[in-house]
Automatic annotation (TrEMBL):
Residues 48-125 form the Glutamine amidotransferase domain. Gene3D superfamilies: 3.40.50.880. Pfam families: GATase. InterPro entries: Class_I_gatase-like (IPR029062), GATASE (IPR017926). It comes from Geosporobacter ferrireducens. It comes from the Bacteria. This is Glutamine amidotransferase domain-containing protein.
Amino acid sequence: MTYMLSPKALHTMDMEEVCSSCKGGYFHIAPKITKIAVINLGMQKESFMDMVNMKCSLNVFDEDFSINQLNMVPHDVVMVSNGKVDAEKMPMLVDKIKTLIGKKKIFGIGLGQQLVKEAAAQAGAKAWKQEGTIMISEDHKLYCCDMSQQNQLEEIMKYA
């Protein structure tokens, strides 16, 4: 028989018991990998590589993404990246982000921060607090930074 354990489950289990119940079989310990749906507005290749090196699995969507398609892909976090967007598309992006608020954690970085904050304001999110360089609306699972510093991607990923 084969078992797959998460690191979280492993903490609560008696290893002797697990090993003795796997006689003739084996067990696999799977690492925690954060699954992120990235709404890419112009994120740099280095930032993608940094996220992969932080044990993240990425599904990358462009600014014309479909909410249905995004929701069909398994993810723990939606990240709205930094970059540039045609001003005509900004209201459409804000509306799409607004439909995601409260369902999953949403990270906004750079331009993504501005879009997430606008969507949050339209959705009625008012209570933001600052932790280091990260702005947080815990009630709505929103986490934003402006990406003016190199380590902010690593800092925001602590909330994944």
